[in-house]
Design goal:
The protein has 749 residues and is mainly beta. The chain is built from 6 helices and 41 strands. It has 4 domains: 91-225, Sandwich (Jelly Rolls); 227-402, Jelly Rolls; 405-567, Sandwich (Jelly Rolls); 589-739, Jelly Rolls, CATH 2.60.120. It binds calcium ion (CA) (4 copies). One calcium ion (CA) binds at residues 411-413, 443-445, 449-451, 555-556. This is MAM domain-containing protein 2-like.
């Protein structure tokens, strides 16, 4: 067998990408690679269209050389597996399709074209789609120190892969990471495992897609102590760090006794010898002004705040700019640090001396750390980097502690939270509540709670300006503000509701203006803003003349860090039991056997007047599920089934919103079903309100079960029933409306 080290630069890549890689030749290549000790190669640079193979020609050579000399020395913790000849205690969950160990290729996989009919049946669940799911469970792990899980995987053709953490005795797994992106090569990903005193298992859920040849495979799982951002560059895979390919200048692996280009060999920082490795970038191939080389950390998977330290060397102070940035999922950069801006006395003209650097990192959402060097010309010198490490304490005690943006949340249920009113304008926002009724809408939080109203018709004045001022938010951050508003009557101008930022310099910047025409429904607004100085958000409703003004209502304000686009999936619909119905039915399925029809997935009002909702609960302009009463006979029912849920010793909390409006409304029930028996968790009969009402049910069930939503048609066609925003989580519920203990009896307390 030819060993990859004797290949010319780029050769392996061509062999790999000229033809569309079939699974067999991928595995074959992979086998070669592993036998030569080069298994790391494919993981370093995920393929990007148009960049392979020619441009990458030079790079892999060095990386392969590097890989050949590397000695893995870092401690691997239990739960690590190379899948060489066994699965190291990883087992397939018998309720799902099996993962198969391919000994020749040294990986485990779930395939779409499996002939295991039994498995297919099992994986298909009760739904109409024949989805194949394989669940791989790690042995029970006890790791009370922070650790990092690095996974080498591949999704072929189509499919998805999800990694979760299953705590002992908890009914819901915590999602760590997921991907739906197929690739032609193996890819490395990392996820932080937070320190915990509870034993847990890692759960790996693979779902190959429908297309032929679809497969989800895992080549290697490595769990090592420390943070995923840590790297001494002496590890295989470079800890998931990768060079962002540029035609002329790139980061290379240096050290390992190999002389690279025309440069002398440096001592690395980790071992202070010529065997250790580091990353470096050289201006020698720079062709144009401002050529940029970037090495990027893996994406963080948990909120991180603390001190990022690293060692660097830099020659030619004026020929290059060395900076550290964070880069979020939208590709937006934020500068953290610049070489030369720190203590000048630490700066050295000589390459060969490592300089320590520290920078505070505040990453409440997923980011990559990017080390970037920009050269002005070929004589821009070199920059080297080694020993990146993270610590959860800030570098300096002067650093302001991480701010909790939820201080600006308010549902107005018990007051104004941290919001204040500017009464100098003579008018104010009033807190009001509307009991469930069939004429006017309630609040957004529960349907029976409180919200703010900008104006009352009782006001003797001819017009008004109402200001609602939020708490002070620190500067230099990006925020996502969400709130719900509802307009009534005739608001002739955009001034009905605007939001602006009030900065300390007393400058005002409008960040949102309402432009929605819909009336009488709660509509969600997402506003992303960035502020350099500390600032407050201010909600303003302006009415110049009462003839032009209707009502303006406000509820459920929330604030998070980061772009709203990034936090849109704060509650991933992949969480078992959670569904806002915006993109379909999530894990829920229609009963096809024991009911009269199906729930309808709908947006906007239902076809029959004086029954059903006018909008959904999540967005106001989004989707919900409803029972259309017209084609059904009185007493007929429809059923929606949750996926199979694991039981737990503790309480579980089921929260959902329901809409029961119409003179002939029948009944909505929620059942818990297990082993053929079923218990009633919640029930409501007859017309309730024109608003979406919140239901919360706390229950306990220690065996596998399903939740069933069952709507029954009433006496007339005016009996539409709708549901939205189902959340199922570990309990107890904060304010349960109903408590049930299904483990012991089926009665509702
Ligand atoms: Ca090193
Ligand atoms: Ca409210
Ligand atoms: Ca049905
Ligand atoms: Ca919805």
């Amino acid at each position: 067998m030819q060993c990859a080290a004797s290949l010319k630069p780029g050769e392996i890549l061509r062999q790999h990408t000229q033809q569309k890689p079939s699974k067999t030749n991928l595995y074959h290549n992979f086998l070669n690679l592993r036998n030569c000790g080069f298994r790391t190669y494919f993981c370093l640079f995920p393929p990007r269209a148009g960049f392979f193979p020619q441009k990458a020609a030079m790079l892999p050579f060095y990386l392969l050389t590097f890989a050949a000399t590397i000695q893995a020395h870092k401690q691997l913790l239990p739960g690590s597996c190379n899948f060489e000849s066994n699965t190291c205690g990883y087992t397939s969950d018998a309720d799902f399709m099996s993962w198969t160990l391919h000994k020749d290729g040294h990986f485990v996989a779930v395939d779409a074209n499996s002939t295991d009919e039994q498995g297919r049946e099992k994986g298909a669940g009760t739904g109409p789609q024949k989805t194949i799911t394989g669940v791989l469970l790690s042995p029970t792990l006890y790791q009370d120190e922070w650790s990092c899980l690095r996974l080498v995987y591949q999704i072929m053709e189509s499919g998805s892969l999800e990694v979760l953490q299953r705590m002992d005795g908890k009914s819901f797994d915590r999602p760590l990471w997921s991907s739906k992106t197929p690739s032609d090569s193996w890819i490395i990903t990392s996820m932080d495992l937070q320190n915990t005193t509870e034993p847990y298992r890692v759960v790996i859920e693979g779902k190959p897609g429908q297309s032929p040849g679809s497969s989800v495979a895992i080549f290697e799982i490595h769990i090592s102590p420390g943070y995923c951002l840590d790297c001494d560059f002496d590890e295989s895979h470079l800890c998931g760090y990768s060079n962002q390919w540029n035609a002329n200048v790139n980061w290379f692996v240096g050290g390992g006794r190999v002389q690279l280009l025309q440069n002398d060999v440096l001592n690395d920082h980790t071992y202070n010898n010529k065997t250790g490795h580091f990353m470096y970038v050289d201006s020698i191939y720079a062709k144009t002004f401002k050529e940029v080389a970037k090495v990027m950390s893996p994406m963080t998977t948990v909120p991180m705040s603390g001190c990022l330290s690293f060692q660097y060397q830099r020659s030619e102070e004026t020929g290059n700019l060395f900076s550290v940035y964070t880069r979020d999922r939208l590709g937006q950069y934020q500068e953290l640090w610049k070489a030369g801006s720190e203590n000048q006395s630490e700066w050295s003209q000589m390459l060969g001396e490592w300089i320590p650097a520290q920078v505070d990192l505040k990453a409440p959402y997923s980011v990559q750390v990017v080390f970037e060097v920009a050269f002005n010309s070929r004589t821009g010198g070199r920059v080297a980097l080694d020993d990146i490490s993270f610590s959860p304490d800030f570098c300096s005690t002067d650093t302001e502690p991480t701010f909790d943006p939820s201080i600006a949340n308010c549902d107005f249920e018990s007051g104004f939270c941290h919001y204040t009113q500017d009464r100098t304008t003579g008018s104010s926002w009033r807190r009001v509540s509307v009991k469930p009724n069939i004429f006017s809408n309630g609040d957004h939080t529960t349907g029976a709670g409180s919200f703010l109203l900008a104006h009352s018709r009782l006001s003797p004045r001819s017009g008004y300006v109402s200001h609602l001022v939020g708490p002070t938010l620190p500067g230099n951050m990006k925020y996502c503000l969400r709130f719900y508003f509802s307009l009534g009557g005739f608001n002739q101008t955009y001034q009905a509701l605007t939001v602006y930022l009030e900065q300390q310099s007393s400058s005002q910047e409008t960040i949102w203006t309402q432009g929605e025409k819909s009336r009488g429904i709660w509509i969600a607004a997402d506003v992303t803003f960035q502020t350099s100085q500390p600032a407050k958000v201010v909600f303003v409703s302006t009415c110049m003349s009462l003839w032009d003004c209707g009502s303006v209502a406000l509820d459920d304000i929330s604030m998070t860090f980061g772009d709203c686009e990034l936090t849109a999936d704060v509650l991933p619909s992949s969480l078992p039991g959670h569904c806002d119905f915006e993109a379909g039915l999530c894990d829920y399925t229609q009963d096809k056997q024991s009911d009269a029809a199906d729930w309808e997935w709908r947006r906007g009002p239902t076809p029959t007047s004086y029954t059903g909702p006018r909008s959904d609960h999540t967005r106001g302009l989004g989707y919900y599920l409803h029972m259309e009463a017209s084609p059904l006979l009185p007493g007929q029912n429809i059923r929606l089934l949750s996926r199979s849920l694991r039981g737990s010793r503790g309480f579980q909390c089921l929260c959902f919103y329901y809409h029961m409006y119409g003179s002939g409304t029948g009944q909505l029930s929620v059942h818990l079903e297990r082993d053929g028996e079923h218990g009633l968790l919640w029930q409501q009969r007859g017309e309730q309100s024109i608003a979406w009402l919140r239901a919360r049910v706390q229950y306990q069930c220690d065996t596998q079960h399903q939740i069933v939503f069952e709507a029954t048609r009433g006496s007339s066609v005016r009996s539409d029933i709708a549901i939205d925003d189902i959340i199922l989580e570990a309990g107890p519920c904060s304010e349960p409306e109903i408590k049930a203990n299904v483990g012991a009896s089926n009665e509702i307390e």
